[in-house]
């Protein structure tokens, strides 16, 4: 199982939610919302850190019994959250990092699409297919 | 001297085309700049580490954004450390072909509106609401005043 969320800054409403398998979406809403507190903590801690520690990748936010939650925040304060099965031990940190990079790159492309209005939910087919292929590689 | 033939030519045509009606034209130009600022700031900050604070973001505007669009940095940045910033560009690219002093001064607003929107849009995407105004006393030097709203 794997779920990806993209949430907008400040207002913290989701721009994009995707999970494989799809039935599990609602179950993760609570997990993701509690993890946002951890994201905010890390962001404010980063404000006081040195230059090289100010990465966009936030790492493992917190592990629950069954799931691991990872976070990433862009300079435009858009938060990406990923929830993965704990049983998926094959998934290494740098694979998660590269998945967040792909999400960030595709999100940037969406931002530059003139038909996309910043703040709207993401409705791009190109984005969907990127996320699908990325998540399939992992499941 | 900084040069960007395509951008200058395009910007000039855009200013003329949208400013047939002066009143609405300036608003339209600023709107265009705003959306461009949003997308551009997203692309330029993609590879950069996280911004430390508001001043870091304004410095990004003065260096990376300005170089990307106008092929040079802002020449002078001043702030009162309470949310107001003054960005001064002594060889502002869109004005550089207009005149070297006071000639055509009344036409200057058309060539500043896009950039005001650009700055506003970039700041907005990076999390800051602001008002941006520009003034020109002698071309091609221009000053942009940015006031960032307290959240």
Defining key terms:
heterodimer; A: 139 residues; alpha+beta; Beta-Lactamase; five-stranded antiparallel β-sheet; 5 strands; 24% strand; B: 151 residues; four-stranded antiparallel β-sheet; 4 strands; 44% helix; 15% strand; globular; ER-Golgi transport (chain A); Trafficking protein particle complex subunit 2-like protein (chain A)
Describe the structure.
The complex is a heterodimer of chains A (139) and B (151). Chain A has a single domain (2-137), classed as Beta-Lactamase (2-Layer Sandwich). Chain A is 40% helix and 24% strand. Chain A has helices at residues 25-46, 93-111, 125-138; strands at residues 2-7, 14-20, 57-63, 67-73, 79-85. The mean pLDDT of chain A is 81. Chain B is α+β, with helices and mostly antiparallel strands. Helix content of chain B is 44%, strand content 15%. Chain B contains four helices and four strands. Chain B has helices at 5-18, 22-44, 54-70, 113-125, and strands at 76-79, 84-89, 130-135, 142-148. In chain B, helix 2 (22-44) crosses helix 4. The radius of gyration of chain B is 15 Å and the shape is globular. The N and C termini of chain B lie far apart (39 Å). Chains A and B meet through helix 2 of A and helix 2 of B. Chain A: Belongs to the TRAPP small subunits family. Sedlin subfamily. Chain A: It comes from Pelodiscus sinensis (Chinese softshell turtle). Chain A: It is found in: Cytoplasm, Perinuclear region; Endoplasmic reticulum; Golgi apparatus.
């Amino acid at each position: 199982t794997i779920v990806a969320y993209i949430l907008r800054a400040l207002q913290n409403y989701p721009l994009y939610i995707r999970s494989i398998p799809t039935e599990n979406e609602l179950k993760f809403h609570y997990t993701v919302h509690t993890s946002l507190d951890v994201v905010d903590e890390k962001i404010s801690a980063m404000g006081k850190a040195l230059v090289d520690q100010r990465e966009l990748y936030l790492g493992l936010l917190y592990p629950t019994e069954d799931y691991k939650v990872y976070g990433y925040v862009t300079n435009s304060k858009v938060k990406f959250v990923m929830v993965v099965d704990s049983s998926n031990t094959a998934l290494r940190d740098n694979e998660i990092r590269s998945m967040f990079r792909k999400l960030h790159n595709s999100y940037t492309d969406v931002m530059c699409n003139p038909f996309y209005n910043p703040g709207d939910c993401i409705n791009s087919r190109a984005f969907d297919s990127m996320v699908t292929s990325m998540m399939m590689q992992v499941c | 001297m900084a040069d960007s033939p395509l951008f200058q030519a395009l910007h000039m045509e855009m200013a003329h085309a949208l400013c047939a009606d002066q009143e609405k034209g300036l608003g339209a130009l600023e709107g265009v700049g705003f959306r461009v600022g949003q997308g551009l700031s997203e692309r330029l900050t993609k590879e950069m580490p996280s911004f430390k604070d508001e001043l870091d973001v304004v410095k990004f505007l003065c260096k990376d954004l300005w170089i990307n669009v106008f092929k040079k940095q802002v020449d002078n940045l001043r702030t009162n450390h309470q949310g107001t910033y003054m960005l001064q560009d002594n060889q502002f690219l869109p004005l550089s072909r207009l005149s070297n002093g006071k000639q055509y001064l009344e036409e200057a607003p058309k060539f500043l509106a896009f950039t005001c929107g650009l700055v506003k849009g970039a700041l907005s995407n990076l999390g800051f609401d602001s008002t941006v105004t520009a003034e020109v006393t002698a071309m091609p030097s221009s000053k942009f005043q940015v006031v960032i709203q307290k959240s």
